[in-house]
Every structure is written in C-alpha cells, then in structure tokens.
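Retro notes (design track)

What went well: tokenization of the new backbones is finally stable.
What didn't: we kept losing track of which sequence belonged to which structure.
Fix going forward: every design gets posted as structure first, then sequence, in one message. First example under the new rule, 125 residues:
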C-alpha cells in the first residue's frame, strides 16, 4: 500500500514509518501526542512523551547502521491500528541483544491507539 492509498490514521502510521526510514526523528516524533505512553513489552520498558519516543529512535539510529522498518502489514481502522514491521540494521554497538556487526532482522508488532489524529498509546511486541 502506498501512502497515497492510505487514509485517516492508517496514513498517519505510514507517514510516521516513512519519517523513520528517512531518518527524520523530529517528524517521526511529531506523530505522537505529548503525553503518549509506549510499552515496549519484550524489553520491559516504558516511554512517556513524544520527546522520549524521539530519543528512543535516535538511540536506534546511533546503534544501528542502515536502521529502517519494512512494513509487512497494517490492520484495523479508526482509533486502533496494528502495524507489523521488520526492523533492520547492523549493530555498531551492543543493542537489542545484538553484538557489534550482527544484523538486526526483527519482526515487531505495534498496536497504536489514536487521539485527535495523533498516536496516544503504543504497545510494542
């Protein structure tokens, strides 16, 4: 699905992933509410606020050469959208259980809940 085909909150998710893949951290973070809560289940980590989300992604770019997300699927309509991606990159430093030089090829699922057209809650698996 191209960005031109997606509408509503699905388009927001596509545009957010495009910002990530372009390395535009400020634009990436702008899709989140200032009070967003992100639960990264597999790491037992919780982020609060768009600024924390931006720092999380900035850390991934710092740790991984070629960091990007490939969309596998997007599901749902309205206020809840599920996104399945493959996160890719090569570790420059130990990161997400990877050693230096080891590739990241991680299947991830994000459940986004929206408020007024922005992401207000995330559960990441």
């Amino acid at each position: 699905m191209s960005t031109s085909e997606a509408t509503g909150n699905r388009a927001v998710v596509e545009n957010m992933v495009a910002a990530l893949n372009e390395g535009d951290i400020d634009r990436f973070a702008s899709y989140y509410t200032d009070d967003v809560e992100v639960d990264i289940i597999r790491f037992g980590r919780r982020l609060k606020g768009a600024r924390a989300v931006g720092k999380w992604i900035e850390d991934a770019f710092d740790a991984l050469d070629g960091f990007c997300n490939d969309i596998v699927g997007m599901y749902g309509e309205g206020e809840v959208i599920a996104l399945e991606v493959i996160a890719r990159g090569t570790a420059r430093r130990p990161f997400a259980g990877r050693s230096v030089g080891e590739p990241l090829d991680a299947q991830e699922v994000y459940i986004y809940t929206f408020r007024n057209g922005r992401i207000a809650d995330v559960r990441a698996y």
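Added context from the reviewer: The longest helix spans residues 8-21.
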